[in-house]
Write a structure and sequence with these properties.
alpha/beta, BirA Bifunctional Protein, domain 2, eight-stranded mixed beta sheet, 33% helix
Length: 239
């Protein structure tokens, strides 16, 4: 598996790159597996594919602060991205890893992530909800997937030095939530994993055996997709 660390300045381009990597793997019948890391330098809100933006986002506050809102192609909840939030994106061959269902994929990837991060805290890391990683009942990682015929994109976030108070400012309280959340607000539910992004990346690379650097990014494909989909108001506000 190849790996690379690359972050665009534009939130739309970062989302587009994940989709481009998935499409390239699909075109190769699943033979272009890759692990990407990225960490935004500015804040943005990202909706899960089917989420209604006016239910999920404090729109007035985002507009006041000129905070961009985008929609991704994977499921899951709405998140605030920004400095101190490491993002990873895995593009995997479905057949090679026996990932023939959503549940099997969740289990396989989440157990590997749990193993990769276990040594970084004295407290046991648990998998809760469908794809959350927690310590002592506090969430520090959320994850989601997008499936094609040969390939799957599994991507997520790991909070390490994130300003959690910002979540309550820009995100509405979710209507749907896992039982373990117990209706806690964002600040009482989320925590940072005390670790550097470099160590997080090294441990995740090791567990997924991502050993070969990827030396180029398909800029033209990313730019076109960002412009035509992720920067489109019709796409962001479709629900």
């Amino acid at each position: 598996m190849k790996y690379f660390n690359f972050t665009f300045d534009s939130p739309a381009h970062n989302l587009a790159l994940d989709e481009v990597l998935l499409d390239l793997c699909e075109r190769s019948s699943g033979n272009a597996e890759v692990l990407r890391f990225w960490e935004p330098r500015t804040y943005s809100v990202v909706l899960g594919y089917s989420k209604k933006f006016r239910d999920e986002v404090n729109v007035d506050q985002c507009e006041k602060d000129r905070l961009p809102i985008h929609r991704r192609i994977s499921g899951g909840g709405t998140v605030l991205l920004g400095p101190g939030c490491l993002n990873y994106s895995l593009v995997l061959n479905i057949t090679r890893h026996n990932l023939r269902s959503i549940t099997l994929t969740n289990t396989w990837v989440m157990q590997k992530l749990q193993s990769a991060l276990a040594s970084l805290t004295r407290t046991k890391i648990e998998i809760q909800g469908h794809t959350d990683l927690t310590c002592s009942g506090f969430k520090f990682s959320g994850n989601s997937q997008r499936r094609l015929h040969h390939s799957v994109l599994f991507h997520g976030t790991i909070l390490h030095h994130f300003d959690i108070a910002e979540c309550g400012k820009y995100l509405a309280h979710p209507k749907l939530q896992p039982p373990y959340r117990s209706n806690r607000n964002h600040s009482d539910f989320l925590r940072n994993l005390a670790c550097t992004p470099e160590i997080l990346q090294d441990n995740i690379r090791t567990v997924f055996q991502a050993e070969t650097p990827l030396n180029s990014v398909p800029d033209k494909l990313v730019h076109d997709l960002a412009k035509n989909r992720y920067e489109s108001v019709d796409w962001t506000c479709r629900f």
